Amino acid sequence: MKELFPAKQVMGFVFSLVLTVVALFVYYTDMSFKAGMTLLLVTAFIQAFLQLVVFMHAGESKDGKAIYTNVLYGVIIAVVTVFGSLLILLWDM
Amino acid sequence: MKIDHAQPLEYSTDQNQLNILGFWIFLGAEIMLFATLFTAYFTLSHRTGSGPTPAEIFEITPVLIETFVLLTSSFTIGLGVHAMRLGRKNAMVTFFGITLLLGLCFLGVEIFEFMTYYHEGATYQTSAFTSALMTTLGTHGAHVTLGFFWGLFIIIQVVKRGLTPQTANKAFIFSLYWHFLDVVWIFIFSFIYLKGMM
């Protein structure tokens, strides 16, 4: 039974729960918008990275490099799309 | 077909490795798809017209249930893949089954949440905010729904054919998809719900 619950994945799960609870501070405490968004950006991206490495085994095979490059490319396009649009449409720059 | 026994079953043939790499490229495109939906939501979430604002319709309890259910399901499918690598077919099928049940719980809560919005007068046509919100949540929910049936067929195949390089490969790729949906949910949870209720 014990071999079915590897320490790495159990720790990954516990850590993801902790990150979620930390993110909840923006709801349960009185935080400025800026501080709240900073906290959320940090917890969300750590959480995503955790899933990628611990649960999705991204770097495990010989294609690991190609996989990380591909994900990084997707994330760059995503970040440019989101923040580029916000800059033009919302922040009036 | 050359089988490399030094590798886990799901990586054991060249075709399998290509399938996994190919699926990662698809996930890259999915990241971009959700980026466009988040863009639409962020730029439109202030345009509430005569409808409700995010803070007025969001409730923490269903969101918390959805988040913890999906996080747990991401953990159980991870355990499923681990059991698969140990060759423990029954344990793997059990973990995949628990994952799908949690997926159903998630969908149930989400449907309940959408019904609440509807009764509070926040429908798809109410404002730019509600349209963008429901398109984003709906796209994620549709992915989970698709994932439920996909996972169901994977389980049936593993039960019928056992753990072969092919079924292991399919199960592993399905686990990638499921983890990805959890990642998308983390961003929905943080930047739609928590941001909206701050």
UniProtKB/TrEMBL annotation, chain A:
Enzymatic reactions: 2 a quinol + O2 = 2 a quinone + 2 H2O
Annotated transmembrane regions: 12-29, 35-55, 67-91
Record membrane topology: Multi-pass membrane protein
Taxonomic superkingdom: Bacteria
EC number: 1.10.3.-
InterPro entries: Cyt_c_oxidase_su4_prok, Cytochrome_c_oxidase_bac_sub4, QoxD
GO BP term, example: aerobic electron transport chain
Annotated GO MF terms: cytochrome bo3 ubiquinol oxidase activity; oxidoreductase activity, acting on diphenols and related substances as donors, oxygen as acceptor; proton transmembrane transporter activity
Keywords: Cell membrane, Membrane, Oxidoreductase, Transmembrane, Transmembrane helix
Keyword Cell wall biogenesis/degradation: no
Family: Belongs to the cytochrome c oxidase bacterial subunit 4 family.
The protein's role, per its UniProt record: Catalyzes quinol oxidation with the concomitant reduction of oxygen to water.
Protein name: Quinol oxidase subunit 4
Organism: Lysinibacillus composti
Name of the gene: qoxD
UniProtKB/TrEMBL annotation, chain B:
GO molecular function: cytochrome-c oxidase activity; oxidoreductase activity
Cellular localisation: Cell membrane
Gene3D superfamilies: Cytochrome c oxidase, subunit III, four-helix bundle
Cell membrane recorded as keyword: yes
Domain of life: Bacteria
EC number: 1.10.3.-
Principal cellular location given in the protein's record: membrane
Cited Pfam families: COX3
UniProt membrane topology term: Multi-pass membrane protein
Catalytic activity: 2 a quinol + O2 = 2 a quinone + 2 H2O
Residues in coiled coil: none
Segments forming domain Heme-copper oxidase subunit III family profile: 21-197
A GO biological-process term: aerobic electron transport chain
Family: Belongs to the cytochrome c oxidase subunit 3 family.
Name by which UniProt lists this protein: Quinol oxidase subunit 3
Organism: Lysinibacillus composti
Upper lineage: Bacteria, Bacillati, Bacillota, Bacilli, Bacillales
Gene: qoxC
